[in-house]
Amino acid sequence: MTIELANLRAGAEQATAARSRLYQVLATAFAFPDQELFEAVRDGTLAQSLAQIAELLPYPLPEAIRPQLRDAGDSYIDFESEYVRLFDVGPAGPPCPLYGGVYGGDRMKAMEDATRFYNFFDLRIAPDLRELPDHITTELEFMHYLTFRETEVRQQGGNPASLLRAERDFLSRHLCRWVPRMRERLAKQTTLAFFPALVDFALAFFEADRAYASQAAERCS
Amino acid sequence: MKLTRRQFLQMSGLGIAVLSLERLALAAAEPAGEPQLPAIPPYRAWEDVYRRKWTWDKITKGTHCVDCYPGGCSWNVYSKDGIVWREEQAARYPVIEPGVPDMNPRGCQKGGTFSQVMYGAERIKYPLKRVGPRGSGKWKRIGWEEALAEIADAMITAMTEVGPESIVFEIGPGNAGIFQVLSLGRFAALLGATTLDVDGLIGDFNVGNYITFGKFQHCSSHDDWFHADLILIWHMNPLYTRIPEAHYITEARYKGAEVVSIAPDYNPSCIHADLYVPVEPGSDAALGLGMAHVIVTENLYDARFVKEQTDLPLLVRRDTRKFLRASELQSGGREDQFYFLDAGKRSPVKAPLATLDMGGVDPALEGSVRVRLLDGKEVEAVPAFSLLREHLEAYAPEKAARMCGTPASLIRELARKVARKRTHILVGWNSNKYYHGDLMERAQCLVLALTGNWGKKGTGTRGWNECGDPKHIFVSRRTVAPEEFEAIEKIFSGLSEKIRAADPTLSDEMVAIERERLAPTLWGAAPPVFYWYYHGGYREVWNRKEWHDPAMKRSFDEYLAEAMAKNWWEALVEPAPDRPPQVLIGAAGSTLRRTRGGYKMLLKHLWPRLKLIATIDPRMSTTAMYSDIVLPVAWFYERPDFRFFTPHTTFNTFTDAAVPPLGESKTEWEICALLARKIGERAKARGLEEYAKRRRLPSGLVRLVAGSLGEALSRLSENELFDRVLATLFPGREAMTRRRRFDALYDRYTFGGQLREGDLEQALELFVSDSVREGIYPEGTTLQTYREHGIVRFAGLGKVDPVALNMACDIRPNETVNPLTWHTEKKIPYPTLTRRAQYYIDHDWFLEAGEAFPTYKPNPKMGGDYPFRLTSGHQRWSIHSIWVVNQLLSRTHQGRPTLFMNPDDAKKKRVRDGELVRVWNDFESFRARVKLAPGVRPGQLIMYHAWEPYQFPEWKSYDVLIPGMVKWLHLAGGYGHLRYWRWNWQPQQADRAIAVDVGPA
Questions:
Q1: What share of chain A is helix, strand, coil (3-state, %, to 5)?
Q2: Residue B946 touches chain A, beta carbons under 8 Å
Q3: CB atoms within 10 A of CB B370
Q4: Is the ipTM, as predicted for this complex, more than 0.90?
């Protein structure tokens, strides 16, 4: 499903749209990499895209943009198999699964909590995708949705407080909770520089965005 | 238009925002046209998302088709948004027999956490292809088309260059619904591939039980335990392994039954017993024979039962120690006609062949008679019981006590209890995993025979039983037409008639077994022992005489050569030495974990020979990690299927597709259909039309039709003979022909295109209707019946499957099930050489080994001369390895492989609790953390089953130092019931009482 909002005004509307787009780009970057994504990493398209969007954010993220975001190695096969090894498949699971629920606590509760957020905002897991609610890409897509709706509300002159609070809480309860733990596990792996760099970028963004959403929610309340 | 990733990343435009959802969707159905986003609800804090009541999209019935025995617990499965969130015991089991507790609720903590397992990080969701060396963990995701093409290409090459027998299927029980087995089994049979016998692979064949009864697949229903007055828990740990059924032990105890636990260690079931009987690991035969000594010498035995039901009244020659046979007494006399000593006339009289009814004769159990043979020689013959009495002299309680470590007074007490009480022995699958487990089970069965303890409620022993489904119909069907059922039944009954015509004294059960013995040739089933010997590197290990029983007089090779020369394993050695395996298809069995010593032996010897290893599994097992292609498969809540049918529960259990398969997983039914089609396509592209299956025609099959082929027989070439024999016995069954077309595979697999890859539901409906036709389920039972109730109780066990007939009892609607009553009540013979429960085996090899009677032999030093004995058993927290990495269950125990050790031993070895220790022998070593437990017997080490090798340092699990010895005696054949048939008579690897030492790592 695709919906466009046009004629966004500079300032809060465009800044919120940038946040939304960054969640969307990160969902793409964390999804299983096809050849195109590999090329986009190698030739800097992804890093450039992240940098361009970061400039539009309502807070700075300059140190998060690193040259390692281009380090995809020399071959797609190696890049792909490294993604599979780190995030997808391995004995007793991969070393750094991209499912939030596996990082402590009750897995089903984590999935339920995410699903309750999705359901609250009248969303559900896409029936034909067969991916789980606590996967990083699903959670990023939800944040993309919330921030898109926030852009929409702002454009319509409404009060985005509900969305901001939800963004704050979802980040706190999910992405900001488990991605740092995943990063710790990733630190124990010898791997292409791209993957830790991507996670670091994402983490910096999550933290900054949580702080922003929290403060903005306060202001709007 | 969908953007590519690059286009997407390059998208710019400050003035626009684009919402794009792939993983999430609007909860409300989107109306046609422009999608409308829902209103934004007011949100204050996270508690708001918990205010709306949680509802289920649906509640379906489920079960877990895993290698749990008996399993078959019915659950309610709760799903929402395509996710299964929880399960709960359905608890819909009705009262069967008034006064006997029902089976509710059934289910344990494993079943209750399966929804977590299915979403575990170890789940495989996409087809994978190895891009690094095997085992390197370097994979790429591939599409199904590519994966199927890779496998199809390797199979076609194997079929054309070596033969279809070089494709080996290990159909493991890790994902084993009936349709998993049937799909893979049907496909493998149509290919002409080799399917390794699952009992031989796992080691779940109760050898001693089989030697005694000519079958081991008989068991009482769990609720029948309630009827026992004395329950001997002997080689079982039900508090770990029979959690849903253990309440019957407690309830029997409330009713007044006495519970005795016999084990080397004071295991978790012992605390629920009235009496704990300690025994040295592997010495149970001495305990049983000590009890038998007491029962015989104190005249506590049930003479009528012994005379009627066992071979003990049969006459045995003193000179040769062999049964007296009619062939020795009269010209043309039968080899399998044996004699009683008539107590009145004091002369030999023929034991009836077609019945156990003694017909007014009172066979003597003692005494002797002189008999003149055909050649004029006069010999002395005595009832086997007399010899048994002599044999038991070595097992007077004081002597037996020295062998088994059980006090003599306790042996006496136990024997007197069994003689007095309605006794049931609870045996798991532990005894048969000892090298001399056959002797232990034979001794147990002897105690029961002497005391008349089977064939009535609350008595007996147990093996397994898996019947009650018309497998033969489903695998043989060419079309879905109802008349096809009749046609197949006709073929089977035709075969039966021919077998019976050759020997009218055979019982229905014996006829069915003989018919089954012809089947491996056609379906490609093979005992794995030869596969391991010729291709797995075990020849060298099994020839280490010092690791065998010292009574083994010749080398393993010599025994094997004799067995081959005598054609005892005719047409069963597959893949043949000259046609080595090329492709291994592992279906949720994990051969590298399961095969004893396999991680060492198979990786070294078999793996380099295999051109392709494909694993079809829902989870990343150790074997999957070492495969070339991994295919993700739907798990228990993602496909409709049935649990193995077993009279243990007497209910057949259904599991429904609560949610779609995760990721790109598919069912085995679909995978096999797609693979069949792909083979046709790829062969056509290579210009190949047909391939040939090697002739494997056992002489038994030829004999069956020799008469109808007439004089033509001698003029036929070997190929012509093969084709003619099969055409005569199985008219129109292309699946059994020698030459097969690549492009016909898909058509055959899909019943002539009538049940295609997407038609699993219809296949299940066909299966249910065939089951009803067979009389297994009540009239009117449909798939919908299962869907609503989750369980359906057997109405019968079926008339064709020999395993069903092995139960030898009727299923009554309002009674517990107790097997073997056809023998005890209807006097129908047992399927043994002597047609009686057989305690004396006069096979040359058994005589040579000193095992004609059950006897006690110490554990061989498997692994070398080391002081500790490593034993095992199923653990509490996992069914095999399926749950071993589950986070939730791992938090309820140490969550890692743990070696249990007696504290006194630990002190001597300077080992502390929790320390990493090394365990070693001459074969291998492994390391694990130690748990000190006073319940462990000194000299014993316990490593519960079945951790994944990858959970140990260097991926070397405890399995790695198990040499996987097989007892040479089990290669014996050519003797009544000592001949292979599906799941029965074959060597299997020993894994208990392995000789090891231990110390700090």
A1: 70, 5, 30
A2: no
A3: 9
A4: yes
Whether the CA torsion B928, B930, B935, B940 is positive or negative: it is positive
Find which of B5, B83, B123, B896 to mutate to test the A interface (most A CBs within 10 Å of its CB): B5
Main-chain phi, psi angles of B87, to 5 degrees? -140, 160
DSSP string, B337-393: --EEEBTTT-SEEEPPSS-S--TT--B-SS--EEEE-TTS-EEEEEEHHHHHHHHHG
Is B83 in the A-facing interface, judged by CB distances under 8 Å?
Answer: yes
Residue at token pair 């929402």: B80
Ranges of H-type helices in B451-523: 471-476, 482-502, 508-518, 520-523
pLDDT > 70? residue B712 = no
A189 touches chain B (CB under 8 A): no
Q: What does the pLDDT look like over B41-52, one tens digit per residue?
A: 999 999 999 999
Per residue in B864-884, pLDDT (tens digit) is: 999 999 999 999 999 999 999
| 3-class state of residue B140 by DSSP | strand
Q: What is the spatial distance between Cα B982 and Cα B204, in angstroms, rounded to a whole number?
A: 12
> Is the model's pLDDT at B348 over the cut of 80?
yes
Q: B991: distance to nearest CA of chain A, Å?
A: 25
Exposure class string for B913-938: b at 16+ Cβ within 10 A, else e: eeeebbbbbbbbbbbbebbbbeebbe
- Judging contacts by C-beta atoms under 8 Å, the chain B residues touching residue A80 are 140-141
Handedness of CA B813, B816, B820, B821 (dihedral sign): negative
The answer to whether A13 touches A151, Cβ cutoff 8 Å, is: yes
Residues within 8 A of A (CB atoms), B 173-232 only:
none
Query: In the prediction, which pLDDT does A129 show?
Result: 74
Closest CB to A80 among B25, B44, B140? B140
CB contact under 8 A, A121 and B40: yes
Q: Distance (Å, rounded) from C-alpha B238 to C-alpha A211?
A: 55
pLDDT tens digit sequence for B218-242: 999 999 999 999 999 999 999 999 9
pTM given for the model? 0.96
Report which of A77, A79, A45 is spatially closest to residue A195, judged by C-alpha positions: A79
CA nearest to B15 within chain A? A8
Q: What is the DSSP letter of B139?
A: E
> Which one of B9, B42, B888 has the shortest CB-CB distance to A25?
B9
Residues A103-117 as b or e (16 or more Cβ within 10 Å = b): beeebbebbbbbbbb
Residues B569 and B563 sit within 8 Å (Cβ to Cβ): yes
Q: List beta partners, residue B25.
A: A124
- Retrieve residue A89's tokens: 């498949």
Question: Angle of helix B482-502 relative to helix B760-773, nearest 10 degrees?
Answer: 50
Euclidean distance between CA atoms A52 and B130, whole angstroms: 37
| Section B184-211 average pLDDT | 94
Q: What pLDDT is stored for residue B725 in this prediction?
A: 79
Note the pLDDT of residue B703. Answer: 79
Dist. CA B471–CA B897, nearest whole Å: 38
Structure tokens at B445: 């069965």
**Cα–Cα dist B919/A141, whole Å:** 50
Q: For chain B, count helices (H), then strands (E).
A: 37, 33
| Confidence (pLDDT) at B33 | 67
Q: In this structure, are residues B422 and B459 in contact, taking their beta carbons and an 8 Å threshold?
A: yes
Whether A157 contacts chain B with CB within 8 A: no
Taking CA atoms, what residue in B is nearest to A6? B16
Task: Tell me how far CA of residue B49 lies from CA of A104, B44, B46, B992, in angstroms.
Answer: 21, 10, 6, 54
> What residue in A sits closest to B882 (Cα-Cα)?
A92
Nearest CA in chain A to B79: A112
Tell whether A20 lies on the interface with B, counting CB pairs under 8 A.
Answer: yes
Q: What is the DSSP letter of A84?
A: I
